[in-house]
């Protein structure tokens, strides 16, 4: 693909809305920084990228995204260490993945050079918005939408790529309870489950709300037969049975999470046995009952690791046996120590923003 590196035009706000006193501990995804990065695709090429004040978009009501859901996104974080150095965690993975998602939705790739130039430029402008306290970070949301006009059920001829940022505190603090899906599915064979496509998430809200109404926090998604476990809400899922770490293999239905693959690498380097294989719901129920299920947790960029204390299946509740030195706590510490530049970067995962 041809890419002329374009000069990014920067228009700054006159007055920042940053209030440093309240920067830490903010609710996840609810407030946004002063600026955003925006680049449009027209006439077959990406146009001059811009950093502008964070502001509403102007779009035609007939824009394809509203009618056909041509929209993909990413989730990343910027971390600040004790010396105010700024780091990203494996950003190449997100850059590659948004283009994989875009391809599945018949959208154009966003050039790698532009992605990194835009992201670095935006983070330099917003550096004061990156919290420093442990567990706090700047959540970064790159996304692409079909902004071209016309209600024909066909790919758009115009697209808009945007990056917005949201200062965020710790995600869930407590262990969660989940329901294992026996009726609904989040992804289909041959579908878009492996893409971070917007519609995947909208379709989860209804079954998730039913789980919440029943006193649970999230749905654990199963395959089309509802016999095998695939993901937990918008996270990948892991189990510890005896001392072995288990997770489902990625597939066309499962999102290939950066946190997931990082935890597999950390576990292996710690000498923990890892099995990446199909995991039957029945196996996990049995392990809960015989006491060998010692941990169960979701993994993703936003929350890092969320321990699961109970799961329900066919209206019966099962518990995860609580042990000392949980894998979930160990991996969360190991990963966040690397992310916040508190530990040696043994795998070369940190990327410094300069
Ligand atoms: C984003 C996402 C994950 C986690 O991916 P990370 O790269 O670890 O943030 C897992 N499952 C789904 C469905 C997701 O959308």
Top CATH class of the largest domain: Alpha Beta
The count of β-strands is 19
Bound ions, cofactors and other small molecules, one mention each? pyridoxal-5'-phosphate
Strand % is: 25-35%
The CATH homologous superfamily of the largest domain = D-amino Acid Aminotransferase, subunit A, domain 2
Distance between the amino and carboxyl termini: 27 Å
Reported by name, the CATH topology of the largest domain is: D-amino Acid Aminotransferase, Chain A, domain 2
Secondary-structure-based class equals alpha+beta
> Number of helix segments?
8
Succession of helices and strands:
EEEEHEEEHHEEEHHEEEEHEHEEEHE
Q: Round the mean pLDDT to the nearest integer and report it.
A: 95
Number of domains: 2
Q: Biggest β-sheet: count, sense, barrel?
A: 10 strands, mixed
The helix content, as a percent range, equals: 10-25%
Low-confidence stretches: none
Task: Summarize the SSE layout with pairings.
Blueprint: E1 9-10, E2 35-42, E3 45-46, E4 50-53, H1 64-68, E5 71-73, E6 76-80, E7 86-89, H2 91-104, H3 112-125, E8 137-146, E9 159-168, E10 176-180, H4 198-202, H5 205-213, E11 218-222, E12 229-232, E13 235-241, E14 244-247, H6 258-269, E15 274-276, H7 281-290, E16 293-300, E17 304-313, E18 316-319, H8 327-339, E19 350-353
Parallel strand pairs: 1-4, 10-11, 10-17, 14-15
Antiparallel strand pairs: 2-3, 2-4, 2-9, 5-8, 6-7, 6-8, 7-19, 8-9, 11-12, 12-13, 13-14, 13-16, 16-17, 17-18
The structure holds pyridoxal-5'-phosphate.
